[in-house]
Amino acid sequence: MKKLFKCIFWVCILCLAVVSPFINSGYNMYKEALENIPIDEMVAEIQSKEYYIELEDVPQIYLDAVIAVEDRRFFSHTGVDIISIGRAIVTDIQTMSLKEGGSTITQQLCKNIYFTQERKLERKVAEVFMAIELEKQLEKEEILELYINTSYFGSGCYTLREASLEYFEKEPMELNESQCILLAGVPNAPAIYAPNANLELSLQRQAQVIAKMIDCGYLTQEEADKILEQEI
Question: How far apart, in whole angstroms, are the C-alpha atoms of residue 145 and residue 46?
Answer without folding.
Answer: 10
